[in-house]
Amino acid sequence: MRSRARASAIGAAAVTALLAACGAPPPPPHSVGDLAEDPELLQGIVARCATEAHASADVECSNARLAVERLAAEEDARRSSERGAAFERQREQRRERDEQKRRAAEQTGQFDPYSSPVSADKPAEAPKP
Questions:
Q1: Which domain holds residue 79?
Q2: Average pLDDT for consecutive 10-residue bins of the chain (129 residues)?
Q3: Is residue 54 part of a domain?
């Protein structure tokens, strides 16, 4: 009886060890935030998803696509703000340059028909012979 109990205990321990080794749950899929923060991991998952046939149903692949879209939107926003700042700098430089030209023209006394006042007076009549 003792050997049976011992064999049963060993068998139960072996089955438990086997189930524990084989039945380990897979790791959870990476979140969109995790993938957005780690570009190397994102690149690896995107490459894996590009080669697998069942990638459209894979949660990690859809998270990778969302992370790529999020990063692209952030990059577009950053570039847009940089372009806006560059445009404002160029506009300010243009205004300063135009103001300097206007001041230089005023000092030299050049006639500028585009900025001269317009008169509504009738021209004087020519003298009669």
A1: 28-107
A2: 64 63 72 86 88 78 90 92 93 94 80 70 74
A3: yes
